[in-house]
Design brief:
This protein has 11 helices and 12 strands. It is of the alpha+beta class and about 375 residues long. It folds into 3 domains: about 80 residues, no CATH class; about 240 residues, Jelly Rolls (Sandwich); about 30 residues. Strands 1, 2, 3, 4, 6, 7, 10 and 12 form an 8-stranded antiparallel beta sheet that branches. A hairpin with a 2-residue loop joins β1 and β2. α6 packs antiparallel against α7. The structure holds zinc ion. Keywords: Dioxygenase, Iron, Metal-binding, Oxidoreductase, Vitamin C. Pfam families: OGFOD2-like. Its cofactor is L-ascorbate. GO terms for molecular function: dioxygenase activity; iron ion binding; L-ascorbic acid binding; oxidoreductase activity, acting on paired donors, with incorporation or reduction of molecular oxygen. This is Fe2OG dioxygenase domain-containing protein.
């Protein structure tokens, strides 16, 4: 057994506040293969729990009998010093990234950071949400193609304020040379609003305003249980992204609102709702729908509604996207195969199965009738 260094405990640095000091404790050079490490899955740690379990075999013998918390603390200090940044769990890195922005970025319009229905929304939208009935929702929206709902949502002043806040982020990013993460793999421009301090506001927007609509309009994809979101803006036009390929969103329900400004082109094209298995199947003529953006106006659709954006041919277009997700729906989906309540292709397959069953039954009846009259 090789012991690297001494396992002597320095009482002056290990007592007192109950922390285990790393000063005079060194890791073993070779792992103790007989030792059964603890599990760390249930702890809030900034590195993968497996790393802690593996590293535990290298702990100095005197440390093997201390509490799991103390072991974790000791190992964390080591990991923070030596593990490449890339090994850290993504969520911790993202927390740090977000904190760095929030600590340094000065918001321009603080009134945007809390939902204020009176200044955010147009009166018709506020009334419909207050009434909270399917009839009130339907009265303010059109459904130009099945599953695509269009309605006025934001006041012009709110759109302008949000646009100027976004310009302010961009200015700050350029000036400080801060390397920001873009909203998704498809957009080179745009910003994640959640990273700039708007997470709480967008959460309230989802809970108080989008979930009530989704509960009624998209019940079969977890509309009533939306519990997390990804909120971002995309920017199209000259010196920005041009268009956006055909895709589905990583959401159950997507809210897409045009904020402005002056532009032409940039139409959204929709091509039917599909489950994972059917995402690349062909489009049927009744599924084809194109939509032209109007500032302040929202399009609400299922995340699995296949779509893309045509080129913005002149001017600049900025859209707010809120991808709303339901963890309950995602968990349930793992045990299901038939999504005929929302997938266009599953639904067609199911109808086809029913048709052939009926046809087979009819054939059987004819045959029996033939036999009995013969
Ligand atoms: Zn399907």
């Amino acid at each position: 057994m090789s012991l690297h260094g001494s396992d002597r405990r320095d009482t002056s640095s290990s007592g007192g506040n109950g922390t285990v000091a790393a000063a005079n404790l060194r890791l073993r050079l070779n792992p103790n293969k007989e030792h059964r490490p603890d599990g760390y899955e249930d702890m809030q740690l900034d590195f993968s729990p497996n790393i802690f379990s593996s590293l535990e075999r290298y702990l100095p013998p005197s440390m093997l009998n201390v509490s799991r918390d103390d072991k974790a603390k000791f190992m964390r200090e080591i990991l923070l010093k030596y593990l490449p940044v890339g090994e850290r769990s993504r969520s911790q890195k993202h927390r740090e990234y977000r904190q760095k922005i929030i600590d340094n970025y000065q918001p321009l319009h603080r009134e945007l950071y809390y939902v204020n229905p009176a200044t955010f929304f147009v009166p018709s939208f506020r009334r419909a949400i207050n009434d909270n009935t399917e009839q009130s929702f339907r009265s303010i929206m059109s459904e130009p193609s099945p599953g695509i709902f269009v309605f006025d949502i934001f006041q012009t002043d709110f759109c302008e304020l949000l646009l100027s806040e976004i310009e302010n982020f961009e200015k700050w990013v350029t000036e400080t040379k801060f390397r920001i993460m873009r909203p998704n793999t498809m957009n080179k421009y745009g910003a994640v609003l959640d990273d700039f301090g708007l997470e709480k506001m967008l959460d309230k927007l989802m809970e108080g305003f989008i979930r009530p609509l989704s509960r009624v309009l998209f019940a079969e994809v977890g509309g009533a249980t939306l519990d997390s979101h990804h909120g971002f803006v995309v920017e199209y036009g000259k010196d920005r992204d041009v268009d956006l390929g055909f895709h589905v969103d990583d959401s159950e329900v997507t809210l897409n609102v045009c904020l402005g400004k002056q532009f032409s082109g940039g139409e959204l094209f929709f091509r039917g709702i599909r489950c994972e298995k059917h995402v690349n199947t062909g489009t049927h003529s009744e599924e084809i729908f194109d939509y032209s953006h109007v500032p302040g106006r929202a399009v609400l659709h299922r995340g699995r509604h296949r779509h893309g954006a045509r080129a913005t041919t002149s001017g600049n277009r900025v859209n707010l996207l809120l991808w709303c997700r339901s963890s309950v729906f995602r968990e349930m989906k793992r045990y299901q195969k038939d999504f005929s309540s929302w997938c266009g292709e599953c639904s067609r397959e199911k109808k086809e199965r029913q048709r052939s069953t009926i046809a087979a039954t009819k054939l059987e009846l004819f045959r029996r009738e033939g036999e009995s009259t013969a």
